[in-house]
Amino acid sequence: MLRFLPSTLAAAAIFTTQCTLSVSREWNITCEKHSSYGKNQILECSKLMVSFHQKATVGKLTGVYRKYNTSKYGNALRCEPASFLLEAWF
């Protein structure tokens, strides 16, 4: 993720969260205006975020998964990853 600018990470995080929580599957003109990023500019970063979310239960960083899977943090990792983002852009 270090290859992405912080502003790209922020925009991709918002888009990925919108998709994960089923708020929206679109990066609309308002999002583009406020972030100055088009959907094609954030898609790669969003896909990486989704793939990390899918792999959160295995590997070296399971402590992060356990922490955010508690009621103290709103059971944040109980949400299903937005796997459709890993497929072709619609």
UniProtKB/TrEMBL annotation:
Alphabetical keyword list: Signal
Domain Cyclin C-terminal residue range list: 1-79
Alphabetized Pfam families for the sequence: Cyclin_C
Coiled-coil residue spans: none
InterPro entries, alphabetized: Cyclin-like_sf, Cyclin_C-dom
Residues spanning the signal sequence: 1-24
Keyword check for Magnesium: no
SUPFAM superfamilies: Cyclin-like (SSF47954)
Descriptive protein name: Cyclin C-terminal domain-containing protein
Organism: Capsicum annuum (Capsicum pepper)
